[in-house]
Write a structure and sequence with these properties.
two-stranded antiparallel ribbon, alpha+beta, about 110 residues, four-stranded antiparallel β-sheet
Length: about 110
Amino acid sequence: MFTVEIGGIPIATTNADEAQAQDVFASAEFRHDLMAMTSGGTPLWDGKAPLTVRPALRHEAELFNDPGLDENEFDDETEDDSVFVAFLVPVDHNHEEMAAIPPELQS
């Protein structure tokens, strides 16, 4: 699991391997989503702050694997090797319509 930080603040964790995480977090789609999504009325990313990908810390991985995670958010047809992104900060609006995972990495 890997986490992306924006300006040193952990924002999202993915279950992807390192290469996939770099691809997801560096994708134009994900970066666009970060600028469109808000937390507390503020965009998650201003388009300028550095994005850093690093191995997820234990508590971030535990949040990702939280049994309280709404499994209805995921497609019933997904496979075990699907790539998911879980945000570590509250998001103000419905982000399901966003394209956080590039199409080539979607199962």
